[in-house]
Amino acid sequence: MKLSFLKIITTFLVVLISVCTYGQEVKEIKIGEITNEIKLGPFTGKRSMVVGVKNILEEYFQELNYELNPNAKEEIRIRLVFFDVKNIGKSIGIYHNDVALTEIIAMGELVKDGKVIKKTIQKGQSKEVSVSTLVVADDGTFNQQTASIALKKVLGAIVGDLTK
Description:
The chain is an alpha/beta fold. It is built from three helices and five strands; from the N terminus they run αβαββββα.
């Protein structure tokens, strides 16, 4: 009698746990149009920015347990509107301190069944600090890593704001 009661309890718990685990609603989303509307600078009209944004968004949604589905009712759209690298430096004799501030502004929209239900504008920044004891010429180039960090910050803020 005890053994069969224990089997019933164990079976019930296994079924209950599997229902709780697999019975959760799967959130679906579609990554919609990503446009590069940057008017000035090295990323004006660059298709590579759009591809990079899509890859970062896919990673964020997978971390948030969303299923990416091209037929999902909810869709996220991104518009990249500003990208700039500001070089701020000072030199005193042989000492050189250079700060490159990368700044990105993007707009995001959450669309459900063809209607925009939420919008957000986010700004992301990343700094690269370089210190040396020689006078180094400023070449005005940007660092890919700082641009990537700033872009990830912006997209993380957009995803966080639109999905809460």
